[in-house]
Amino acid sequence: MDTNKFSNRHIGVTTDDDKAAMLKAIGVNSLDELIEQTIPSDIRLTKPLNLPPAMTERKFAEHIAELAGKNKIFTSYIGMGWYDTVCPAPIVRNVFENPAWYTSYTPYQAEISQGRLEALLNFQTVICELTGLPLTNCSLLDEATAAAEAATMFHGTRSRAQAKAGANTLFVDEHVFESTKAVIHTRMEPQGIEVVTGDFKTFEFTDKVFAAIVQYPNGDGEIEDYRAFVEAAHAKDVRVAVAADLMSLVLLTPPGEWGADVVFGSSQRFGIPMFYGGPSAGYFATKDEYKRTIPGRIIGISVDAYNHPAYRLALQTREQHIKREKATSNICTAQALLATMAGFYAVYHGPDGLRDIASRIHAYAGFLAEELEKLGYKQVNKNFFDTLKIALPERVEVKTLREIALECNINLRYFEDGHVGVSLDETTQPKSLAVLLQMFAGVAGKTYAANVDDINRGRYFDEKFVRTSKFMEQELFAKYHTETELMRYIKRLERRDISLAHSMIPLGSCTMKLNAASEMLPLSRPEFQNIHPYAPVDQAAGYIEMIENLSAALIEITGLKGVTLQPNSGAAGEYTGLRIIRSYLESIGQGHRNVVLLPASAHGTNPASAIQCGFTTVTVRCDEKGNVDLADFRAKAEENRDNLAASMITYPSTHGIFETDIKEMCDIVHACGGQLYMDGANMNAQVGLTNPGTIGADVCHLNLHKTFASPHGGGGPGVGPVCVAEHLLPFLPSHPVAFGNSLNTVAAAPYGSAGILPITYGYIRMMGADGLTEATKVAILNANYLAAKLEKDYGIVYNGARGRVGHELILECRTIKEQSGIDESDIAKRLMDFGYHAPTLSFPVHGTLMIEPTESESKHELDRFVEVMQCIRQEIDEVEKGTADKEDNVLKNAPHPEYEVTADEWSHPYPRTKAAFPLEWLHDGKFWVNVARVNNAYGDRNLVPTLCGCCQC
Q1: CATH code: domain of residue 364
Q2: Is 361 a domain residue?
Q3: Phi, psi (5° rounding) for residue 138?
Q4: Domain assignment present for 304
Q5: CA–CA separation, 539 vs 537, rounded Å?
Q6: Which residue range(s) make up the domain with 433?
Q7: pLDDT of 38-56, one tens digit each?
Q8: Rounded-to-5 percentages of helix, strand, coil across the chain
Q9: Which residue from 65, 243, 665, 896 has the highest number of Cβ atoms inside 10 Å of its Cβ?
């Protein structure tokens, strides 16, 4: 084996002997023969991908270091939603750089996710405590999209009187961040919601207004008193959402205490680097009455089978998949890893530590304001937390100040009206203030020599804004303030989770592949972490070069002509692609087209995204083999010919097969005047062998956390790039601050979560064209190998035209349930006793398990999984034959926690060894769950989304 070849490290099946044994089990003579039987010949690429030669890991390390070196780290006082911060070293080392945390999956399977669930509940507790509201989710994508989610939620929950009166106007204060306003406009317009921007002080509510959004402190840094505004809004049955700086709420009265219905924002300054715009966790808190409509996921406290406390996802668990077009949001992943880090940041500092940080930031801002006044500058903001808006003396020009600031390696904010903004943060030191004051003095023709070492911690806002309520008094926030204690706490939680560091995660449709260390390492470089998204472009030259290189690679891989990297998730990419289509249709006078065809096999977020974009969905049925029913597809396209906007097709389908009629489906849509949207969630089965452009798609979104090696992070971060055909290029998202216009802006930052792009860039550069193509082939090989091994015991629900699955397969469990009473959930829970995460449960077909092994898994690991599944099948047979009790058996009781197996009493009719060690190799490092099967119904009936005030629950 060539040890310098990265693809040999990434791809699990590398030896000829292993490949030969797997191909024999499948019943083919070569890998190429398998591919010929799997992918229709009329869509196969005729030449290899035109990508740069593959790099070794060392060469890539040198290359990415060179790119990083082109970024210039200036001290940025720009603010506007991003602030420099300090991520405590134990969190960097034990969470951010730890594969046990960043390779885990969304915690749908609660029993093997207790660590992450607790960490996310901690985050929720912090958000509720600081905002003064009782309910929150465990993160959203960013502040701007959280604003749009608030507006959508308010619109969807209008009173009957409002709906009857046609209340369809959203008021947004003019001092909300520009990026937030841009995303709101993008999201509201297709839903027919009118957005009115103005001054909250003079705005008058009418019966047409259903909601309002303001910022606290506002976008200029002024702390406004919104109490009277909220009272007036509520008098008219108008709900109010407040964008709030989370750190400021340590000192300021929380909006929940003066009537806000929603408080949202970013938790970035709780220890998350700026990353040129992301990733960082948005937050969203609200009142208990919205618990059924709040977007995203809620972590709740429930009990297990023995009444022990247990954490789980509550209420909204996968609701966008289940409700489809009736979903309240299209959110699939958010920013779980970053929310986890922000939660640990709050745990580490505790309430006193946060007060120290916030009061220091505020005191430094006040000191700077007072000293600038002495130099002839005027502070415009009367009440402020960390941001000054400065009026310059007559003799001082903005141009001169900007030039000198840049010479001092400083970025300031420059308002259109000539004012200058300075936002201080956790990293600001007395010497930083000295440099600022000397710079401002020099521009004004003066000198500055005051002592900045002894700064009083005064207050620079009116007493009416002072927070008087206590927060974070739970025991948790008083226990882990030393590094030793925090390290041990993080490790305790880590041990309660299964991740790729433990075993294969066989989830279909989620592609839990290797996130290579060499791809992850660049994320820890300060040159990528400490760049503000609005920094001058020349300071981000390395980022821009990487983005351009990555964009070119994605364009080549998809066979399309352009790409945006702005969407912060796959679901956000879906929405963006549809928004691009809508803009194009409007530009050619076809804006009336509003119908989207969706196969029944489409990803569950597809219909939700279409509805969010203002379209009407029409479902196309599938035949008994799982293929889209071509006759029904044609008939419904023709039936809606005059109004057909698009069809959204996942390829290979969510049923795990390459449909042979895909090109004809594209032709049908185009003939009827529509656009073909390809959901690229399953691109891991396409790269190097076919692509959306060759097939005939106009738009394709990609999931970097699936095909392109970004870690899932327990439910995010993600990036959802959208690639488009040439005629759609003019409608790619822009950005009001970075690019000067707000066309189709879908994220707060111009390049979305730019900070994790080095992962995908590294994956493509180190794999090269041959490596990427081989990865696709092996992904298909592994899936077909598992299908061949498991078909006899379980049955495969869908096979392609020539009897092959794509890169994933669906196991039939419905017959098993009929014959034994054991269902797919029992099998999923039993897998935990073997140290495995469950496959995808009852999706896309109810009563089944969907498996995707990915190319990263070795034959040894696949065989181990097969052995486990065969063992479980034998246990099912025991129940079916009556040799095991119908109810009290290892499957119905699974998983078996350590406390149960080691208890003095054992009441089950089967031995402990059968429960815990059904296979001999489990004695070597068994993964122990720490809770028994979780009671989902109890957790929904008794929603507890935070730690209580008296204990840690």
Answers
A1: 3.90.1150.10
A2: yes
A3: -95, 30
A4: no
A5: 5
A6: 351-461
A7: 999 999 999 999 999 999 9
A8: 45, 15, 45
A9: 243
